[in-house]
Amino acid sequence: MEHRMGGRRERLAAAVQLQVGTAIRSRVAGPDADARALRIWGAPGPRWFPADDPVARVHADASMFVGGITALLLQSLHPLAMAGVAGHSGYKSDPWGRVERTSEYIAMTTFGPIPSAEELIARIRGIHDRVRGKDYRGRPYRAGDPHLLRWVHLAETWAFLQTHTLYSAHPLSPGDADTYVDHTRRPSEMLGAADLPRTVGELSAALEGYRPELETSPDAVETARFLLRHPPLTGSARAGYGLLAAGAVAALPPWAASMLHLTTHPVPHHLQLLTGRMATRIVAWGLESVRDDRLFNRSDDRPSSE
Questions:
Q1: What is the pTM of this model?
Q2: Is residue 218 part of a domain?
Q3: Short-list 273, 270, 267, 280, CA closest to 240
């Protein structure tokens, strides 16, 4: 009897795990997640980053689900970058489409064959060439501006590294963190960003250098409200996202949280950090049920020295 009960509990746990993993994967990778995985992980050819590279380790970690929210919140504080997102990305009308496009870019440039990564970058550069306009104060912007691309890279790199340090079960060593910052330059430079940092210290200094340009624009406030208070989710998915969002807010620099009016969060900071760690563990647990290890054990994923 006890053996049968144990078996039922295991089957129920496995079913719940699969349900969680499938829901997360479909939201991030879209309805064609299996086909996309084959294009990225299953296709032959050399990669820029081997599996043990800090870039691959960070971007394969479940803490990225928190880091993505942190990055969006931080990036929103540059009014020109935020104006481009608000005016052209469709983040409110098609939020999951934007998530899918962003996740594809990160996955392809980290884990995909080099020709496919280069093709995707070229396609994005073409889109950037057409994206331009004015911010809420009438200041002109263009998406291909190297200075704005540098800001997006800095905020993203800082956010991914910060949430990995706070929430990953296997955080990088200081030396590997420097390597992560250095190696992430490659795809961003190909997109058009320039003068990118090579170490964590340089990253922090570069981020600080942008602070005089940052503003609490109406679009930034609306983005934070959308991401944290009105996400396009219902039921248990919304509750799970709330855990990720709390961890994302806790990871922000205090000055950024203050600019976004997030310093009066009802949950104390240390509990937000605990929530972030718990959310990361839940995501990792769920994704284990939909991971196909055949795609991650390639013999030809060596990095290119080109």
A1: 0.86
A2: yes
A3: 280
